Amino acid sequence: MDFGYEGKVAVITGSSKGIGRKTAEQMAGLGAKVMLVARGEEDLVKAKEEISHHGEVDYVQADVTEEGAADKIIGRTADRFGRIDVLINNAGGSFAKAFDQLEISDWEQDIDLKLMAAVKMSKAAMPYLKENGGAILNMTAVLGKTPPASSLPTTVSRAAGMAMTKAMSKDLGQYDIRVNTVCIGLIKSDQIMQKWKNEEPGLSWEEYAGLDKHNIPLGRIGDTEEAANVITFLCSDLASYVNGVAVNVDGGSGHAL
After folding, report:
1. DSSP assignment letter at 223
2. Count of alpha carbons within 13 Å of 84, Cβ hemisphere only?
3. Alpha helices in 52-114 (DSSP H)
4. Strands 96-97 and 57-61
5. Which of 33, 51, 120, 129 could form a disulfide with 134 if both were Cys (CB 3.0 to 4.6 A apart)?
6. What is the Cα 151 distance to its own chain's centre?
7. Per CATH, which fold does 9-187+223-249 belong to?
8. What is the C-alpha to C-alpha distance for residues 75 and 95, in angstroms, rounded to an integer?
9. pTM, rounded to two decimals
10. Where are the domains of the chain?
11. Which residues belong to the signal peptide in this entry (predicted)?
């Protein structure tokens, strides 16, 4: 099965670990040239070394919230690989509190990271994506569709990301640029692994991942590869008529389609 990645170039933010890294590995293995982006250079060097066994990869160390970071990342990618076909806006986190526990600065930092960074990256990549068409994938979260208590500001940032995705898909379709979002639920990550060790150190990972308290119909926390599979498909030629969708990757835990 041909995913159409051969000769394509993908930029993935937040890709030194977790879902971003696994997606980079998959795309490189399918023939894409991949530019990794993250804040920590040590993790980037390690990721590049390991992913290089699957295909051509390089990295840019950058904080996507900083002024000029988007232009730096996109410029270096174009200089290194000569084109850009896929942009995955994956940088983010899961900071969440109740409304009355938040400072204005908390809102500003979260929106800068999860919404405005994606805006700036997409804007910087636009001249290159317009040349050959391509795909933008904005990572969001399933809780952005049905925010629970004490989930601010992250659910608001993620909901805004979904709305932006839909509007972008309608604006950019004329250039053969598809824009979609993956709404993540509980997926194995450094943060989840630390929570497991803090909460249930006596349990194996499989036992912890399957606890009823997670309220996941499929009965377990998802793996990074399972999320990467969906992202890799949505950005590929196999999904050439999929545009403006928000796909839940959450084991069925969300309360909205």
Report:
1. P
2. 28
3. 69-81, 104-111
4. unpaired
5. 129
6. 19
7. Rossmann fold (3.40.50)
8. 30
9. 0.97
10. 9-187+223-249, 188-221
11. none
